[in-house]
Amino acid sequence: MKKRQILWIYITFGISWIIITDFLVEKYVPIELAMTVQKTKGIFFIVLTGICIYYILKKIEELNCCKEQEDKLSTLINSMVDFVAFKDGQGRWVKANASCLKLFQLENIDYQGKKDCELAKYTDFYHKALMHCEKLDEEAWLNRDISRSEQTLPIPDGTKKYFETIKVPLFNEDGSRKGLVVIGRDITDRKLAEEQLRKKEKLSIVGELAASVGHEIKNPLTSIKGFVQILGKKNKEDEMYYDIMTKELERIDHIVGELLLLAKPQKLVFSTYDVKEIVADIVSLLQTQANMKEVTIHFQSQESLLIDCEKNLLKQLFINIIKNAIEACKENGNVTVNIEKGSEKNVLVTVEDDGCGIPKEFQKRLGEPFYSSKEKGTGLGLTVSHKIVQQHGGKINVKSEEDVGTQVKIHLPFKNSKSPS
Ligand SMILES: Nc1ncnc2c1ncn2[C@@H]1O[C@H](COP(=O)(O)OP(=O)(O)O)[C@@H](O)[C@H]1O
Ligand SMILES: [Mg+2]
Fold first, then answer.
1. Where is each PAC domain found (predicted)?
2. Fewest beta carbons within 10 Å, which of 318, 340, 356, 385?
3. Separation CA 413–CA 308 (nearest Å)
């Protein structure tokens, strides 16, 4: 009830009380008793209003106490970095903490009393995620027990966050649904660290393997290749088979070469070169392969940009990246290679293609040794590329969308601004 309403009820009741009781006293009470009755009714009125005021004050105190407790609870859950949401038995949101509202972009929405599917209308980006949450909640209800699961949520900056979600369904005594507590902990860093560790382990195994076997294979391979070529020239009628053998040997040679690049340790000799010149060389080198696939390479570059680098490694890096782009393209596809000043400290080389793109589920495996979607791929090109960029104190990012294309951004520090790792 509103304060103003209570006031009006009190005033109306008070005036009516005075008018009616005065009228009754005047009419029915003998004159000698009138004074006493008037006093009694005055006292009665004061006692009655006194009792009412007492109960109102008590109620206010109780409400203040509840408010204080609610404030404490709100402060507590709002200070949590985990996201927390309470929902009622019908899935309507009762309370959510700041992290939760921020995560789902519901900060300025009156969310209370609304279900996930209703809230989904307020956010385009998390529409699907909220609809999916409703399904997961239902599973938690059916499970009738605390459930833990791992969920991924897309983030507007294009990345993903991993959450460990705990759902606690609460039931009334009669077994009906009372409420659902949902708590989500951001475990992205842990996940990425695990993934990195897995990659590192694999990489170090590959490194060791390469170091021990690589050199042993390389030398005999060179002599076999030489003899196959000589035999091919002698036996003209079998030349076709010798050609195939040479090609396959070259493939083995290529794989061993890439493995050796991964092997540690490597002595690097850095000199100053213009990135534009190195990339231009590679573009013309790969032009034949592009022409064969009818792929056009568009090469754009700003003024000369000097970096300290190991030229052959850098060539290898751009061969890997541009080759991947050409291989991803269909006929009449386009590969754009652009060199620009990325920032005060870095040169930015962007290689973009309008090819097949990389399916989302494979994107996190990029750079992992031996991961390849190609029949004759080695799955070492990107691993080697990551290592080369790292050796040059740079960064490499891959953005890709299936059936749209892939964009690889390579940041390399300018001459004298590098901190090699
Ligand atoms: N530009 C690209 N477009 C589409 N897929 C790509 C691209 N670059 C890399 N990939 C994917 O990454 C995988 C690994 O690449 P890489 O390490 O160079 O090995 P390989 O080329 O031998 O398969 C490829 O098999 C391919 O699936
Ligand atoms: Mg490749």
1. 147-199
2. 340
3. 8
